[in-house]
Design goal:
Number of helices of chain A: 22
Strand content of chain A: 15-25%
Radius of gyration of chain B: 19 Å
Number of strands of chain A: 20
Distance between the termini of chain A: 59 Å
CATH class of the largest domain in chain B: Alpha Beta
Order of helices and strands of chain B: EHEEHEEHEEHEE
CATH topology of the largest domain in chain B: Alpha-Beta Plaits
CATH architecture of the largest domain in chain A: 3-Layer(aba) Sandwich
Protein name (chain B): Acetolactate synthase small subunit
Keywords (chain B): Amino-acid biosynthesis, Branched-chain amino acid biosynthesis, Transferase
Pathway (chain B): Amino-acid biosynthesis; L-valine biosynthesis; L-valine from pyruvate: step 1/4; Amino-acid biosynthesis; L-isoleucine biosynthesis; L-isoleucine from 2-oxobutanoate: step 1/4
Largest sheet of chain A: 6 strands, parallel
Number of helices of chain B: 4
Largest interface: A-B, 17 and 19 residues
Mean pLDDT of chain B: 96
Radius of gyration of chain A: 25 Å
Shape of chain A: globular
Helix content of chain B: 25-40%
Structural class of chain B: alpha+beta
Distance between the termini of chain B: 21 Å
Strand content of chain B: 35-45%
Structural class of chain A: alpha/beta
Helix content of chain A: 25-40%
Number of domains of chain A: 3
Largest sheet of chain B: 5 strands, antiparallel
Organism (chain B): Acidithiobacillus marinus
EC number (chain B): 2.2.1.6
Oligomer: heterodimer
Chain lengths: ~575, ~160
Amino acid sequence: MTSPTSITERLNVQTKSETLTGAEIVVRALRDEGVEFVFGYPGGAVLYIYDELDKQEAVQHILVRHEQAAVHAADAYSRVTGKVGVALVTSGPGATNAVTGIATAYMDSVPLVVISGQVPVALIGNDAFQEVDTVGITRPCTKHNFLVKDVKDLASTLKAAFYLAATGRPGPVLVDIPKDVTAHQCAYHYPDKISLRSYKPTVKGHPGQVRKAMQLIASAQRPMFYTGGGVVLGNASEELRKLVRALNVPITHTLMGLGAYPATDPQFVGMLGMHGTYEANMAVQHCDVLVALGARFDDRVTGNLAKFAPHAKIVHVDVDPASISKNVRVDVPIVGDLQQVLTEMNQVLAELDALNDRHAMQAWWGQITEWRQRDCLHYQQDELIIKPQFVVQKLYELTAGEAIVTSDVGQHQMWAAQFYGFDHPRRWVNSGGLGTMGFGLPAAMGAQVAEPDATVVCITGDGSIQMNIQELSTCQQYKLPLKVACLNNHYLGMVRQWQEFFYEDRYAMSYVDALPDFVKLAEAYGHIGLRADKPADVEPVIREALRLKDRMVFMDFRVDAKENVYPMVPAGAALSEMILV
Amino acid sequence: MRHIISILLENEAGALSRVAGLFSARGYNIEAMTVAPTHDASISRMTVATSGSEEIMEQVLKQLNKLVEVIRVHDLTEGPHIERELMLIKVHAVGPDREEVKRLSDIFRGRIIDVTDRSYTIELTGPGDKLDAFIHALDPGMVIEVVRSGASAISRGAKAI
């Protein structure tokens, strides 16, 4: 910032306050916001913006093959880096294609700015070519959205969009810009700061509540920590580790929270919920104090609400007041930023006279060890048929647990969550809330763009991968060397599993006939395809894929078609009522 | 239980539909909803009459507060407040009914604001149940048309919400 050119630039801005077109303002604002990558797809309404993007190099554009993928890629870029992801789409079908991506980011609270083109102001409401009411359509699946009808409002609106996306409970913000607004001119001034009288998120936890929470935790006989995506989003992993270690409490994560606490640490008891571990679910059901951090008591986590954690007093910390006491009555609610509140909790902890009763804690850990001995994730790998769990386990071993893993949605997602041990936050990227099939491959692209040198693996299935398979073309264009691990069982596996359990083996439409030859398909896109038919092939295929560092490799694992995800809490059952292997 | 919620929000295009959309998306009841700018033209005030359990009302208030354009939310039913609604009602008024309707309107402190040889149009203000009572007092065959504003409400005392 102190280089002579930037000072000159700043002086220029102050002295003559340049006049720019709307399109120039969009690109300049992105630059001033520090945006490095925009994921998008051009079209009529955004041509001025693309024209300007093309004239500069500070903001790079990644051309996807479908707008849904642009938003997923921007989303994953954000999840991996912690920065605001940016997507750019045209009006009409460009915007509607983006909606699934926006809703995905909204459910998982990912900060995004999505810029959509719109027909010229004079044509709005006229059923013009490629017109939809984008602001109307995206209203329920964005944190906020804007239609900019005057170029003079453009810079400040973009500033507000970035501010809203990243602060409080993060989320996607959409800015809809009519084509004529991108052509009109006005003086450019990008505000340094913005303040909205109607939007003041609470950051600091209430000191009295924090003290009350810590006293309750320290007095517990059977304390249990349950943390979610909020800890990852709030960059509060370090503070969490400090607190959990000092208290020597067991900790479980939601699907979205994996990596916040190291999976290899003995205090971590695995994921909880519908496909959580026996020990995690039992510990939640038997604890006397449950500490929920950045988690929202989702139905996939709690099972039957009436029977959830029946003996527990509940402490709930969340940045979003509306998440507190929404599903479960909370005894000590704390609204605030996770990093800040956890820092406050650590401070209070240092001042506490007495910690948890040692004998009680020993007994509690003894009980947990006993539950662990059930070995609920056990599976038997024979010499004939590849078990999907085995593939994930081998991926974990051969990447030394250091890969960024994205997933699609279904059985493979659960196996990835169960068998890939994440020791760090922002390494596990999946659509937890919305459950969007087709997320994995574009998410892997966004992750690879964010970290070009990282090993990025997309764990997917034969159903999900086909929902955005066209992105193999994007991977080729940008030479993204990500690895796809397809657990191919010829079924929509999770649908099949539910049909087996709850619909008397009637497999309505869950068998996927006429699958493409994924190896040849990958080759057709200019990539490398590898296949594993037998258990003995698994390790060599993964080794070969990882050896090809600069190539995108599609690994097609022919896995056991009838394997199920265990444990499983049937919908509506209590967490302790698990179906075990 | 019935609640009257006052919402101050930015007077911007789309703000109303955000609130209305929230109620329908989350399945909250709306009995009535009114909105108009306040003495500060940049701020609108909305009054929503709704009902639900205590848990639901807590969520309604929190979710409303979460909307970016909402400046303040207050449940007026938590304290003493005044509720008023405006009704314009057009009734058949011929023969002996003409006098009867006029009398009834006077009893309810209504005002006749339009007259034809066959009808009266009456303006009536009050809490919702008073307006209901007026309608019930009329012979059902007499009512031609009814338009009601929905409740507006304000807290008692010298303070703003």
